[in-house]
Structure prediction request, 297 residues.
Amino acid sequence: MRAIALLLVASGCTPLPDARPARGLYHDLRKAVEFRESDDWVVDSLEIDDALSTVMRSVCSAEPEARETLQIWLASQIDANGGPSEARYREEGGITGSIRETRRLERVRLLLDYAEDHVHECPYWLEADPDFAGVQSDEGRFVVLVETRGGAAVLINEDDTAVGGGGGVRILPAVGITRRLTLALGYEAGADGLLLETMTGSRSFEASLAMAVPLILRITNVSRVVDIEVAGTARFANDDRFGLRVAVGYGLSTPRLSSFMPYGVIWIGYQVLPPAHGLPTEHSVWLGTRVGFDWDP
Prediction:
């Protein structure tokens, strides 16, 4: 648990409200703000108006007590950061990381205020849920991660060094075990291989069937994710090889669309295949991407 706590600190995780309904609502509102900020936030009123439709399901699902708790929590966080961002900007003469965070909290509060003005328009069939845990978070949910994996690799053994790569499809049932952590275990199938030089001097990719059973611990910080992975691997060629892969990834997720939350991850990994069939130990270092979606069935 101490190692996980250090990882949470290292990934720069933002504070979250203690009460689960307020935490779920905050997660949804903040993700909408972060998503719009990535496309350059300029005029508050225009950005808030555009973001409203993406958060009203969450606001309508949260009880008044949850919305009030979040308002109080946001005010306390802004005060803890040193007060309103505009006054600090004029005093300090520039945007700092702390001012940027305060400005984001103010935008979340502004979005909540604007949504509060439209709560009376919530449809009759969307009733407030006292156990509302948010739409964007995996906390307390069973989800399925469906993704593609691809990458390039440098393969090293005692006889040679070669360039290779591969890719595949992964399906990983997962559970949100805490407010930030999701644990996933699944199956991966694809192809790995080497980029070999032919007799004519050109290069061709010689692929083999590859499978893996990956175990992933995902740390979520609103729209950012950090994945820590351990996987048992298998490569089926003339001589079947079994090994172990460890990897770490960093990426971003977009707001959930219906039941699907798209994401993309850049990952780096290390794989080892112990000696077998008279072949020496093979080490490989991987760099690649994973693109997929988090499906909430």
Summary: DSSP finds six helices and nine strands in the chain. The helical segments are 2-10, 20-37, 44-61, 64-80, 85-92, 97-116. The radius of gyration is 23 Å. The beta strands are 142-156, 161-176, 181-185, 187-197, 203-221, 224-236, 241-253, 260-273, 282-295.
